[in-house]
TrEMBL record:
<dbReference type="GO" id="GO:0042780">
    <property type="term" value="P:tRNA 3'-end processing"/>
</dbReference>
<feature type="compositionally biased region" description="Low complexity">
    <location>
        <begin position="57"/>
        <end position="68"/>
    </location>
</feature>
<dbReference type="Pfam" id="PF13812">
    <property type="entry name" value="PPR_3"/>
</dbReference>
<feature type="region of interest" description="Disordered">
    <location>
        <begin position="679"/>
        <end position="710"/>
    </location>
</feature>
<dbReference type="GO" id="GO:0000049">
    <property type="term" value="F:tRNA binding"/>
</dbReference>
<feature type="region of interest" description="Disordered">
    <location>
        <begin position="119"/>
        <end position="139"/>
    </location>
</feature>
<feature type="repeat" description="PPR">
    <location>
        <begin position="181"/>
        <end position="215"/>
    </location>
</feature>
<dbReference type="GO" id="GO:0005759">
    <property type="term" value="C:mitochondrial matrix"/>
</dbReference>
<feature type="repeat" description="PPR">
    <location>
        <begin position="529"/>
        <end position="563"/>
    </location>
</feature>
<dbReference type="InterPro" id="IPR002885">
    <property type="entry name" value="PPR_rpt"/>
</dbReference>
<dbReference type="Pfam" id="PF13041">
    <property type="entry name" value="PPR_2"/>
</dbReference>
<dbReference type="InterPro" id="IPR011990">
    <property type="entry name" value="TPR-like_helical_dom_sf"/>
</dbReference>
<protein>
    <recommendedName>
        <fullName>Pentacotripeptide-repeat region of PRORP domain-containing protein</fullName>
    </recommendedName>
</protein>
<feature type="region of interest" description="Disordered">
    <location>
        <begin position="403"/>
        <end position="448"/>
    </location>
</feature>
<feature type="repeat" description="PPR">
    <location>
        <begin position="290"/>
        <end position="326"/>
    </location>
</feature>
<feature type="region of interest" description="Disordered">
    <location>
        <begin position="57"/>
        <end position="94"/>
    </location>
</feature>
<feature type="compositionally biased region" description="Polar residues">
    <location>
        <begin position="69"/>
        <end position="87"/>
    </location>
</feature>
């Protein structure tokens, strides 16, 4: 039926369309005729409805409800009131009462995105408290394992190891449920290796094996490196030895990089003997040793604080004899050995370092191409000879004093005919005060003419070693400041700021060499940093030259360097008088810098050595005023200061210094109750991940568990 016929139906004197409309929609009929039923229009002029209005009213009716309402209207009794009329009466009675229902609503269907996010966060917080939150699969496009590899690598380079671990464990494994690759585990193990996070690295390694992923050479290199960087050397050594045994049982061939990581672990966690065992294995497997290999051997020499300097000189000579070019890092390791290690027995050192060097075969396989090296590795005789040469080096390093005295290095007549003088009859005298016993004239102030860094015999004027006890004496054996820098120039190397900082630690305090360091710094074009000046300040303060240490502060300001707390801590070492220490604290207060525990510990140490308990009480008062937490070192110092000396007897004699200890003990007891304590943070605390729901929080107890402890 088209719209024209509908218009004709409504235009008749008795509209038939209106009666049809009453059956289709009772509400429309009520609107047209009232409550009692449909009333036909009395006036003929009402016949004006537009077809568009009719069509729009029909379009508003639901499709399914039209038929139901229509059949219901036709089958109902006209004498009974319809349910629609009853419903309308109820609505009229409740008219105006709905405002109370909707006025109290706080959230409507039309809401903002911020309000929806806030509601979602509150819901997640409630679920977290109940512990019912489970990782849900992440919606959206799935990333690939290689994408996660590059993202974790970027985060580790930025120093965000905890974020990288969280990205891998939560988003990749739990949310996206991706199958990781070997590279995903290797990059995380490498990041843990740089941070020394031992337990986490081996937990990732065990998880990697459970997923049937084959570790690569880079994986084992990272595992040995994390053992070397771990703060707990004993447990790291046990883990590394166990891993090495597993690789040997599988007959896994390590490359040179992995051997270097193993050598680094042996240098930092074990001793020089284990380093030489790994060095033997490197030679036996046919690898060509490099300067980096000997650098790790030098690190192993530094671990021996008594004889490490002699070991370092012997390893250095062996490296030069192989034709290897030393690097700046090797020279820095030599300076570290001169600073931290001793020479050992002078007789053994004289026999090993001053005698003419005997030519020995090279420790490398014969040079003749890669095929020749492989044939040399396979040949049993050649490998045996190489092993014997390495063992000869080991015997030379660990030479006993009795063996050194049995075989004198060389007769005096063969070394210098006509030098039979009375002053050169003995090889070593314990009463010598100089670094070298010589008949030559007095050397220049920057060092002696002898330089033990040169492979070969010492100068003919040198007879034996005397007492070498200070770092300046050991630097003199390497030619002093001028000779050491000259050897670096021979190898085409220039000192960096680390080299000059180490030289500042080993030069003679107050010597011209120490004052010339700034000019050497400018001559080589090296930019000075705060660590270099802090080293100079610490040396001057230890010598008691507080004014000389303060004189470096204008130099810092001239170079645009801002002092830090370590600078004031170095100045506190020289504050032997109470007024100097209190003035230092006042200057820091004016500079808006709060002293830390290390500065107060340094001042407490100076006051205890002076037995100045009044000065000590003033330091504790300033510490309480600034609310600086107390650590274990400060408590140990104060407990020692609060004890009476074993020989103190107040009834036997009068001691004005120790009589003041009673007042300090009373104040210290009250002070201890008011001060906060400083908790030592765990080294791995900053790398712990804390996923949602706290179900994966790592504690120190969890670190001691195995891979399945979480």
């Amino acid at each position: 039926m088209d719209f024209v016929r509908l218009a004709r139906l409504f235009s008749s004197p008795r509209p038939v369309g209106l009666s049809i409309l009453c059956h289709l929609d009772p509400l429309r009929a009520q609107w047209a005729g009232g409550r009692e039923g449909p009333v036909w229009p009395r006036a003929a002029g009402w016949i004006q409805p537009a077809p568009a209005a009719f069509s729009s009213s029909l379009s508003q009716l639901p499709l399914g409800s039209q038929g139901q309402k229509n059949t219901g209207s036709l089958s109902s009794d006209p004498g009974q009131p319809s349910p629609t009329a009853t419903q309308e009466e109820g609505e009229e009675e409740n008219f105006g009462m709905l405002s109370d229902k909707y006025s109290s609503r706080r959230m409507f269907h039309k809401s903002t995105a911020q309000l929806y996010n806030l509601r979602l966060k509150e819901q997640n917080t409630e679920e977290d408290e109940e512990g019912e939150l489970e990782p849900k699969p992440r919606r959206g496009p799935r990333n690939t394992p290689y994408w996660y590899f590059f993202q974790c690598k970027r985060l580790i380079r930025e120093g965000k190891l905890a974020e990288a671990l969280d990205l891998f464990e939560r988003q990749m494994l739990q949310e996206e449920c991706l199958q990781p690759l070997e590279c995903n585990y290797t990059v995380l193990i490498g990041g843990c290796g740089r941070a020394g996070y031992l337990k986490k690295a081996f937990r990732l390694y065990n998880d990697m094996k459970k997923r049937d992923l084959e570790p690569s050479d880079a994986t084992y290199t990272a595992l040995f490196n994390v053992c070397a960087e771990s703060p707990w050397k004993d447990s790291a050594l046990q883990s590394a030895l166990k891993l090495r045994q597993q690789l040997q049982a599988r007959n896994f061939q390590l490359n040179l990089k992995t051997y270097h990581a193993l050598l680094k672990m042996a240098a930092l966690c074990a001793d020089l003997r284990m380093c030489l065992d790994v060095f033997k294995e490197i030679i036996q497997k046919g690898h060509v040793v490099t300067e980096e290999t000997f650098s790790y051997l030098l690190m192993g020499c530094i671990q021996d604080k008594k004889i490490g300097f002699r070991y370092a000189l012997q390893v250095w000579r062996q490296m030069l004899s192989l034709g290897l070019q030393p690097s700046r890092h090797s020279y820095n390791l030599l300076l570290g050995a001169a600073r931290d290690c001793g020479l050992g027995d002078p007789a053994v050192a004289s026999a090993v370092l001053l005698r003419p060097r005997e030519e020995t075969a090279l420790l490398q396989p014969p040079a003749g191409g890669r095929k020749t090296r492989r044939r040399a590795q396979v040949g049993a005789d050649c490998s045996l000879s190489v092993k014997l040469h390495v063992e000869a080096l080991e015997r030379q390093l660990f030479l006993e004093p009795s063996q050194a005295l049995e075989g004198p290095p060389e007769p005096q007549e063969a070394r210098a005919p006509g030098q039979a003088q009375s002053g050169m009859e003995t090889k070593a005298e314990p009463d010598h005060t100089g670094a070298l016993t010589s008949v030559a004239p007095e050397p220049p102030p920057w060092g002696l003419e002898a330089n033990l860094l040169t492979p070969g015999a010492a100068p003919l004027a040198v007879v034996s070693f005397g007492t070498v006890s200070t770092p300046a004496d050991r630097l003199a054996l390497m030619g002093g400041l001028e000779g050491f820098l000259g050897k670096m120039a021979e190898h085409g190397l220039r000192p960096d700021i680390k080299t000059l900082t180490l030289l500042a630690e080993v030069v003679e305090p107050g010597s011209p060499a120490e004052s010339s360091l700034l000019s050497i710094l400018d001559m080589h074009g090296v930019e000075a940093d705060l660590t270099f000046f802090n080293t100079l300040m610490r040396k001057k303060s230890k010598r008691g030259d507080l004014e000389g240490a303060k004189a470096l502060l204008p130099v810092l300001a001239k170079r645009g360097i801002v002092p830090n707390l370590q600078t004031f801590c170095n100045l506190a070492i020289g504050c032997h008088r109470p007024e100097d220490g209190l003035q230092l604290l006042s200057d820091m207060r004016e500079s808006q810098m709060t002293p830390n525990t290390h500065i107060y510990s340094t001042l407490i140490n100076v006051a205890i050595k002076k037995l100045d308990y009044a000065y000590l009480i003033n330091i504790l008062k300033d510490m309480r005023r600034n609310r600086v937490p107390v650590n274990e070192v400060v408590i140990r110092q104060l407990e020692f200061a609060a004890q009476y000396p074993p020989s103190f007897d107040r009834y036997k004699g009068k001691n004005t210094y120790l009589e003041k200890i009673d007042g300090f003990r009373a104040y210290y007891k009250q002070w201890l109750k008011e001060m906060p304590a400083e908790e030592t943070p765990h080294p791995w605390q900053k790398f712990q991940t804390k996923p949602k729901g706290d179900q994966d929080t790592i504690t120190e107890a969890d670190m001691d568990k195995g891979p399945g402890g979480r």
